[in-house]
């Protein structure tokens, strides 16, 4: 109880700052009231999460009550924020559940996937091209994107657990496999709970149910040297207070940066005719980087706040590190420091919108029988939406990722010694990476084809041309899966650390993970190197 009292004043101060921001940001007759609804609902969810953990802890009440309350609060927030459009959440979830029951475990994952993604796409087309083109509002298709991830993930996990043989599953698929059909209450609680209904992030069904039932604090306590020890069960739950406070502080700082910098440095100014005609190339390069840097804090704010909400409710605990410090990053969606200090395109993507990239890997990349990269890219593009700028960003991102990997694998080993040379190399690769990422995501922000092509033509498509030349000139070889590998790059060995243990950093400026950045996973298929996949912002 004392813990909740220490959190409430800080949460209320965050609420005050955000409320002032929303009122200050209202513009025109439409007023952007949906933005006010969204942030206020998220902060209400934060307070509700503290209450949920304090008064409806798994040690004090049944999992049935926790499911019911989490669901009712989630539906209340959805209807408050989106009105009757929130019925789409129930329609999509309800029909998908009926498909699971009627079709059977042998094929229901395919039908659920087609229906959920198709329903989402129809809603996105309707919203974009009929009602609200070009508006980054708190539209109802945003939560539907997360619900689509949950529905399809669960369908594949049920198929793995109730139909496929264990020997045919990868270690992560066995770990996530669901061995019985969820009840309707469990299913709706998973898809529509108040902690993730508005901004996610995605979590696995087994992790969510373990949290509701109070089993999420079991794990293997590390020994003195960091080695694994026998499983244990904690008698007192680790407190999320420090993690939540730290994440709320990040939210406040991100919001302040967004308020003070973003409006002064609009991304659209990169295509301003006078700016393009008069600014020098160094000025244009610097402004490109700074304007895209200023555009990121709003995503830091939204994703970190969503993470804090889950942690405040007691969800997101991932065990202890080798120093015995509790880790609350099970459902974290980004690593800000790694993003801003990235020295490679892959490193940037690996730490941006983590949970979406894991979803793309689990439901598509590791299951594709042919051309996994192409299929996963296509899925990511459809899931993101129908703005043409998204597709320009993804196509450019794939090109940049493959070219960057080729450059790194051919030249990095030449700059590892001495330390001074490696430092110069790191500074150079950081600069190139940040400019390349900024160059790539401009269409994602501009949305439309004409302004996006105006930007690229003003840069003479220089990075596109450089990337193509790299792919043409550097040596290439194929792995057994047919993936192209440049220079001295070899398939990475299977690591003992599994994808779920590295899920504290991934892709949605909305979600832009680029096609070949999936990290190796424990016990992956023999066919060779599976990279952590990435298409999203």
From TrEMBL:
Cell compartments where the protein resides: Endoplasmic reticulum membrane
Q: Does the keyword Lipid biosynthesis apply?
A: no
Q: Which residues form the signal peptide?
A: none
Q: Where is this region: Disordered?
A: 484-537
- GO annotations of cellular component type: endoplasmic reticulum membrane
Q: Tell me the InterPro entries matching this sequence.
A: LPLAT_7/PORCN-like (IPR049941), MBOAT_fam (IPR004299)
Entry's Gene Ontology BP terms: lipid modification; phosphatidylcholine acyl-chain remodeling; phosphatidylethanolamine acyl-chain remodeling; phosphatidylserine acyl-chain remodeling; regulation of chondrocyte differentiation
MF annotations from Gene Ontology: 1-acylglycerophosphocholine O-acyltransferase activity; 1-acylglycerophosphoethanolamine O-acyltransferase activity; 1-acylglycerophosphoserine O-acyltransferase activity
Keywords of the record, alphabetical order, are: Acyltransferase, Endoplasmic reticulum, Membrane, Transferase, Transmembrane, Transmembrane helix
Major subcellular location class: endoplasmic reticulum
Which portions of the chain have biased composition (kind: Polar residues)? 502-519
| Membrane topology reported for the UniProt record | Multi-pass membrane protein
Cell inner membrane as UniProt keyword = no
Q: Which residues cross the membrane?
A: 36-56, 68-88, 94-120, 248-269, 389-407, 427-446, 458-476
The protein's name is Membrane bound O-acyltransferase domain containing 2
**Annotated organism of origin:** Cavia porcellus
């Amino acid at each position: 109880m004392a813990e909740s009292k220490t959190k409430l004043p800080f949460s209320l101060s965050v609420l005050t700052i955000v409320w002032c921001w929303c009122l200050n940001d209202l513009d025109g007759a439409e007023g952007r009231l949906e933005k006010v609804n969204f942030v206020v609902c998220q902060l209400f969810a934060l307070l509700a999460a503290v209450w949920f953990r304090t008064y409806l802890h798994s040690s004090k009440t049944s999992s049935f009550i926790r499911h019911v309350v989490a669901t009712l609060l989630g539906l209340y927030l959805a209807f408050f924020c989106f009105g009757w459009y929130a019925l789409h959440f129930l329609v999509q979830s309800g029909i998908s559940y009926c498909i699971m029951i009627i079709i059977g475990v042998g094929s229901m994952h395919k039908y659920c996937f087609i229906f959920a993604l198709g329903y989402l796409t129809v809603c996105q087309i309707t919203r974009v091209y009929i009602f609200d083109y070009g508006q980054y509002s708190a539209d109802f298709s945003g939560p539907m994107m997360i619900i689509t991830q949950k529905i399809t993930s669960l369908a594949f996990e049920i198929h793995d657990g109730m139909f496929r043989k264990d020997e045919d599953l990868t270690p992560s698929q066995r770990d996530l496999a669901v061995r019985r059909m969820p009840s309707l209450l469990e299913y709706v609680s998973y898809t529509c709970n108040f902690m993730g209904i508005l901004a996610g992030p995605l979590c696995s069904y087994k992790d969510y149910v373990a949290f509701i039932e109070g089993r999420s604090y079991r794990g293997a306590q590390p020994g003195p040297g960091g080695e694994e020890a026998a499983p244990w069960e904690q008698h007192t739950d680790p407190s999320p207070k420090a993690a939540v406070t730290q994440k709320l502080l990040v939210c406040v700082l991100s919001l302040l940066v967004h308020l003070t910098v973003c409006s002064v440095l609009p991304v659209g100014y990169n295509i301003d005719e006078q700016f393009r005609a008069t600014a020098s190339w160094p000025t244009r390069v610097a402004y490109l980087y700074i304007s895209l840097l200023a555009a990121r804090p709003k995503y830091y704010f939204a994703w970190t706040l969503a993470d804090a909400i889950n942690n405040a409710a007691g969800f997101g605990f991932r065990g202890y590190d080798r120093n015995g410090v509790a880790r609350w990053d099970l459902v974290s969606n980004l690593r800000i420091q790694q993003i801003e200090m990235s020295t490679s395109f892959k490193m940037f993507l690996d730490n941006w919108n983590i949970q979406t990239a894991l979803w793309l890997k689990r439901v598509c990349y590791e299951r594709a029988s042919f051309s996994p990269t192409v299929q996963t890219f296509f899925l990511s593009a459809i899931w993101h939406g129908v703005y043409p700028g998204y597709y320009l960003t993804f196509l450019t991102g794939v090109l940049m990722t493959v070219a960057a990997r080729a450059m790194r694998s051919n030249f990095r080993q030449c700059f590892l010694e001495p330390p001074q040379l490696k430092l110069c190399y790191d500074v150079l690769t950081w600069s190139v990476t940040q400019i390349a990422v900024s160059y790539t995501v401009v269409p994602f922000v501009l949305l439309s084809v004409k302004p996006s092509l105006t930007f690229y033509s003003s840069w003479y498509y220089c990075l596109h041309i450089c990337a193509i030349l790299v792919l043409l000139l550097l040596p290439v070889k194929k792995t057994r899966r047919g993936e192209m590998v440049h220079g001295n790059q070899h398939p990475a060995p299977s690591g003992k650390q599994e994808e779920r243990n590295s899920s504290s950093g991934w892709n949605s400026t909305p979600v832009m993970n680029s096609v070949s950045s999936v990290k190796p996973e424990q016990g992956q298929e023999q066919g060779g190197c599976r990279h952590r996949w990435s298409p999203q912002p």
